[in-house]
């Protein structure tokens, strides 16, 4: 058994252990989307291991078909995380949600432009298209989860909160996934074979992060302090003034 298989099987065991921990004592009620995502990933990984052993010719189709299901599940987890981040909505500075939507829109537009102008080594090839879509999704999710990790403290969510841990876990492995997907789109199958262990280990790190956060006591988030709201308000006002100045100079 080579290293890749060992890491792959270890990840499957970690997924089932994490799912058991999430389900234990009804923890899934607070993180329903995350629980569904982990349940699907645990089943998917176990199935793909069996497929690789007994029906290897079906692996590629099933793997990327499963990713089509994984994307909406990731979106559901992202919405669940943001719902917790923006929970004290009435106490947030005016324009917070609006500027976040603008930033997310810019991220999606930039990702679409990158996908169009840098399609990869073999435009029109089915595998290259799949890798391109995976890279684009990784860029969007990585940017969105990075937002929660970097500024969640301004929304009253400390680093010991499970919501923070979920966001950081996704950021850890999706940032590596974005890196490997970009190389794969440019260099093809050679990059896939060279970086497979890196991708697997990054997901292992994400799983371990989630396990730690579901084993340590959860900390309730607090409403943002007056100082935090004032700092965020100044940042939003500064961004608004820059936009107004740029419009006037046109």
Care to describe what's here?
This protein is mainly alpha-helical and 250 residues long. It has one domain (3-244). It has eight helices and no strands. It has helices spanning 3-23, 32-54, 59-85, 96-117, 126-151, 162-187, 189-215, 226-248. The chain is globular, with a radius of gyration of 20 Å. It starts with a helix and ends with a helix.
Short summary:
This protein is mainly α and 250 residues long. It has helices spanning 3-23, 32-54, 59-85, 96-117, 126-151, 162-187, 189-215, 226-248.
Q: How do the SSEs run, as a string of H and E?
A: HHHHHHHH
Helix-strand makeup class: mainly alpha
How many distinct domains?
1
The share of residues in extended strands comes to under 5%
Number of alpha- plus pi-helical segments: 8
Biggest sheet: strands, sense, closure?
Answer: none
Radius of gyration: 20 Å
- Poorly predicted runs of 5 or more residues: none
The total count of strands amounts to 0
Mean pLDDT: 76
Q: Gap between N and C termini, in Å?
A: 64 Å
Name the overall outline: globular
Q: What is the share of helical residues?
A: over 70%
Keywords:
250 residues; mainly alpha
Task: Give the arrangement of secondary structure elements.
Elements: H1 3-23, H2 32-54, H3 59-85, H4 96-117, H5 126-151, H6 162-187, H7 189-215, H8 226-248
Helix pairs in contact: 1-2, 1-7, 2-3, 3-5, 3-6, 4-5, 5-6, 6-7
């Amino acid at each position: 058994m080579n290293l890749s298989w060992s890491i792959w099987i270890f990840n499957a065991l970690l997924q089932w252990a994490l799912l058991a921990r999430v389900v234990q004592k009804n923890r899934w009620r607070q993180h329903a989307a995350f629980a569904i995502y982990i349940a699907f990933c645990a089943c998917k990984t176990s199935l793909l291991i069996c497929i690789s052993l007994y029906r290897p010719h079906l692996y590629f189709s099933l793997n990327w078909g499963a990713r089509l299901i994984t994307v909406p599940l990731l979106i559901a987890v992202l919405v669940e995380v943001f719902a917790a981040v923006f929970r004290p909505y009435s106490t947030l500075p005016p324009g917070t949600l609006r500027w976040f939507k603008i930033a997310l829109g810019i991220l999606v537009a930039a990702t679409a432009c990158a996908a169009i102008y840098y399609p990869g080594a073999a435009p029109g090839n089915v595998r290259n298209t799949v890798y391109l879509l995976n890279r684009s999704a990784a860029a969007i999710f990585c940017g969105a989860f990075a937002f929660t990790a970097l500024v969640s403290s301004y929304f009253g969510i400390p680093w010991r909160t499970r919501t923070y841990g979920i966001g950081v876990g996704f950021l850890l492995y999706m940032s590596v996934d974005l890196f490997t997907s970009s190389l794969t789109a440019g260099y093809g199958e050679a990059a896939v074979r060279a970086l497979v262990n890196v991708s697997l280990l990054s997901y292992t790190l994400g799983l371990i992060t989630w396990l730690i956060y579901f084993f340590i006591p959860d900390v309730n988030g607090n409403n943002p302090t007056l100082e935090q709201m004032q700092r965020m308000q100044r940042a939003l006002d500064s961004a608004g003034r820059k936009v107004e100045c740029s419009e006037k100079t046109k």
